[in-house]
Specification:
Radius of gyration: 36 Å
Number of domains: 3
Keywords: Exocytosis, Protein transport, Transport
Protein name: Exocyst subunit Exo70 family protein
CATH topology of the largest domain: Monooxygenase
Strand content: under 5%
Pfam families: Exo70_C
Structural class: mainly alpha
Helix content: over 70%
InterPro entries: Cullin_repeat-like_dom_sf, Exo70, Exo70_C
Distance between the termini: 111 Å
Order of helices and strands: HHHHHHHHHHHHHHHHHEEHHHHH
Largest sheet: 2 strands, antiparallel
Family: Belongs to the EXO70 family.
Strand order of the largest sheet: 1-2
Length: 515
């Protein structure tokens, strides 16, 4: 009877001390950490951030010492069950209060599925903060507290922590499960990947703290949740193919500018490849799963064969990953789509400007991202540069080769004398043709400054020497006083006008001629 009363008294004292953290939130937990011999290894990592450290309920060293003595006394007296029950209930309540402080409450799966994406996006961000706080602060703190109070009973300590962690983790995984079932769309990929990475980071905290049985169970549960999120991410990323295929335009982009689809796809790939390590892991696991179900594979041997035949392929497909192959597939589809869109332009020259603009934009985006370039490879970049240069040559052939015959010497001389009538026609035809080209192509758009400069330099190098030579040789044969009537432009004027090409300004000629 005396023992029962003593244990009842200790039980109430134990409960009171455990609740002390809620009643005295400002108590100095840091002092406990510095003086305790059970410091957990993550506490000295100063780079964890506010949400991952400093949030664990505080106990003074004195209170922890008292609870340790009470726990030892109750367990030694055969009151282990009562001691553990008080501890479990109190710590679970305290943990729930911490979750509420982080504004996280259990959400019904149906409610998650009904949420607008903007709302769900906010809930995901809050969930990520909670998981990081649990893995970075609350779980290590709980482990440290348990080890301090039950220092003589490590098995009891691990069992108590495991029960608490299991309940919390299952609640967190329920939310992740609901997210994986949400309606999929391209803009959701990055949040899905954030969820995946957050779950991956939770595993070490579980492995470090739980009993072997609980660790195995929870690790399996987390891995299963990761797999479901991963499958959703693969599905979303692969759906980029359908987005490209379904983008069928009926009218061309004005001025041959970079198409919005090109910007969208390349920016999407850039942001996606910032998660390259995660995506490599997800796609590799997906590929292994699909190889066991070949009839449903999204990355089948046929895909690899098509990739091998691609004009923008790597040197060796076999050495590349499923994710790399998927990215190359997307790039090839984009090329095919842009080729089809280029045919909407009636002017062949503008068609090549369009292909050049988009090709250069794609190349610059790949080169500008370490991760995307890593996926595509240097061989692809060199081949893409060759393709863009060929577009440049084709443009020059379509546009400027038709003006050069005006500057030909053939047919100007009859019986050793210059035919002035033919000469005058040549000058007029040149001026008219050049005006037409300039009027048209000054409205075209080349937004990449380097490409714009390269085009102007190449045009100048073709036209100016030929025109200067022609004017210098035949200007003298025109009637004195009527030279300006036929020689509309000096070579310097042509150079100035060429500088007005591709700036998207239809009035550039008028401005330059009047200046």
């Amino acid at each position: 009877m005396v023992l029962q009363r003593a244990m009842a008294f200790l039980e109430e004292e134990f409960r009171s001390l455990l609740e002390d953290c809620r009643n005295n939130p400002q108590s100095n937990y840091d002092i406990f950490l510095k003086n305790s011999s059970f410091n957990y290894k993550n506490q000295d990592q100063s780079d964890q951030g506010e949400t991952e450290s400093g949030d664990f309920p505080a106990y003074s060293l004195e209170v922890v010492t008292k609870m340790n003595k009470i726990a030892c006394a109750m367990i030694s007296a055969g009151y282990e069950t009562e001691c553990c029950q008080v501890y479990s209930v109190s710590r679970r309540i305290a943990f729930n209060e911490q979750m509420k402080r982080l504004e996280f409450e259990k959400i019904n799966m149906d409610d998650v599925l009904k949420m607008q994406w903007e709302t769900l996006e906010g809930e995901i961000s809050r969930w990520i903060k909670v998981v990081k706080t649990c893995s970075g602060s609350l779980f290590p703190g709980e482990k440290n507290l348990g080890e301090s109070i039950f220092s003589d009973h490590p098995l009891i300590c691990r069992s108590l922590f495991s029960n608490l962690a299991r309940a919390v983790v299952i609640q967190l995984l329920d939310f992740a499960e609901a997210v994986s079932m949400a309606k999929r769309s391209a803009e959701k990929l990055f949040k899905f990947l954030d969820v995946y990475e957050t779950l991956q980071d939770l595993i070490p905290a579980i492995n470090d703290s739980c009993s072997h049985e609980c660790e195995h169970q929870l690790t399996w549960e987390i891995a299963a949740a990761c797999d479901r999120i991963g499958e959703s991410a693969v599905s979303i990323f692969c759906d980029l193919e359908n987005s490209i295929k379904s983008d069928v335009a009926k009218s061309p982009v004005p001025g041959g500018a970079v198409h919005p689809l090109t910007r969208y796809v390349m920016n999407y790939l850039k942001y996606a490849c910032e998660y390259i390590n995660t995506l490599e892991k997800i796609f590799e696991k997906h590929a292994k799963l699909e190889r066991s179900l070949p009839m449903t594979s999204n990355l089948s041997s046929n895909d690899i064969e098509k990739e091998s035949e691609s004009p923008h392929n790597f040197e060796t497909v076999e050495s590349k990953t499923p994710f790399s192959i998927q990215v190359v597939t997307v790039m090839d589809l984009l090329d095919t789509n842009l080729e089809a869109k280029s045919k909407l332009y009636r002017d062949p020259s503008l068609r090549y400007i369009f292909l050049m603009n988009n090709g250069r934009y794609i190349l610059q985006k790949v080169k500008g991202s370490t991760e995307v370039r890593q996926v595509m490879g240097d061989t692809w970049c060199r081949r893409r540069s060759t393709v863009v240069r060929q577009f440049h040559k084709n443009y020059q052939r379509e546009t400027w080769t038709r003006i050069l015959p005006c500057l030909s010497h053939d047919g100007l001389q009859v019986n050793g004398k210059v035919n002035k009538s033919v000469l005058k026609d040549r000058f007029k035809i040149f001026s008219t043709t050049f005006d037409e080209i300039h009027r048209t192509q000054s409205t075209w758009v080349v937004s990449d400054e380097q490409l714009q400069s390269e085009l102007r330099v190449s045009i100048t190098s073709v036209v100016i020497p030929a025109y200067r030579s022609f004017v210098g040789r035949f200007k003298q044969y025109l009637d004195s006083g009527k030279v300006d009537k036929y020689v509309k432009y000096q070579p310097e004027d042509i150079e100035t006008l060429i500088e007005g090409l591709f700036d998207g300004n239809p009035t550039s000629m008028g401005r330059r001629r009047s200046s």
